[in-house]
Amino acid sequence: MDPHPTSSSNEPKLRDHVYDGIQEYDQKLPNWWLFTLYITIVWFIGHWLCYYQLGIGSSDQDEMDKVIAEQKAARDKQTENITDEQLWAMSRDAKVVEAGKAVFMTPGMCVTCHGTELNGMLAGAKLPGLPLNDQQWKYGGTPKEIFNIVRKGSPDITKGMAAWEAVLGVQKVSEVTAFVLSHHHEGEPITKAPDSPGAPGAAAPAPVPAPAPAK
Ligand code: HEC
Fold first, then answer.
1. Which of 89, 138, 170, 205 fits as disulfide partner to 79, beta carbons 3.0 to 4.6 Å?
2. What is the mean pLDDT of the chain?
3. For 35-44, 93-102, 191-200, which range has the lowest pLDDT when averaged over its residues?
4. Atom of ligand 1 nearest to the CA of 180
């Protein structure tokens, strides 16, 4: 290529300005370069239409949401299959218990019916909830049984014990169960309340004067 300016209209024109002794030609952009640019523009429009406007194909955000949802589902599945031993272990983990306590003590939550002391009392008056700090249980006092009653609620919904899993999710239910368990000891005796579903009538050594209803 001729580095000198020329009058021929076919030749690239050398532009007037000089920077640090460098001059430049007024060149047409090479076709391969323009072609790449146009392809990119067309690609962008297609991509934008499909992913952001028409919902064809899933965007990175969707993919991400899907992966997160899958992981959460897998973790929930794992928590649903939690064992008594794992729940007892959680009840000895200060961090977990603290998290469960925060849920329990939230106004309008468990504390409203079971009391700050978990004894079902407020300033000497009986609250609607059963005591959770004693060894007598209506629905069974093993960690799994407590976990399940909190998840699914009372079989008798008129009693007011809701299925908390819908509100809290499985993870938090396991934490609040750990908090309840932190008021108990592994291996302590468990007695059935006289009004337990399927309680073997008088066999329940309940320290209440009223006779347990025989079957
Ligand atoms: C609106 C009042 C209310 C709230 C709020 C409430 N409960 Fe209950 N809970 C009850 C009642 C009433 C029962 C007894 C249900 C029955 O007799 O069928 C009960 C039963 C239970 C039992 C079974 C006790 C046993 O002896 O078997 C557990 C465990 C329990 N609740 C834990 C919780 C936890 C944890 C929370 C918070 C996530 C909570 N409850 C929130 C009213 C409540």
1. 170
2. 87
3. 191-200
4. 35
Q: What is the CA radius of gyration of the chain?
A: 35
pLDDT digits (tens, 9 = 90+) for 164-192: 999 999 999 999 999 999 999 999 999 99
For residue 84, give the 3-state DSSP assignment: helix
Residues 6 or more apart from 144 whose CB is under 8 A from it? 82, 83, 84, 87
Q: What is the 3-state secondary structure (H, E, C) of 117-149?
A: CCCCEECCEECCCCCCCCCEECCCCCHHHHHHH
Residue identifier of the C-alpha nearest atom 2 of ligand 1: 113
Select from 96, 97, 111, 114 the residue to mutate for testing ligand 1; criterion: most ligand atoms less than 8 Å from CB: 114
Q: Report yes or no: 144 and 63 within 8 Å, Cβ to Cβ.
A: no
- Measured from the CA of 141, which atom of ligand 1 is nearest? 27
Ligand 1 closest atom vs CA 179: 35
Domain ranges of the chain: 13-53, 76-197
pLDDT tens digit sequence for 118-169: 999 998 899 999 999 999 999 999 999 999 999 999 998 899 999 999 999 9
Query: Which fold would CATH assign to domain 76-197?
Result: Cytochrome Bc1 Complex; Chain D, domain 2 (1.10.760)
pTM: predicted TM-score of the whole model, two decimal places: 0.70
The ligand 1 site (C-beta within 6 Å) comprises 104, 109-110, 112-114, 128-130, 132, 137-139, 146, 149-150, 154, 156, 159-161, 164, 176, 180, 193
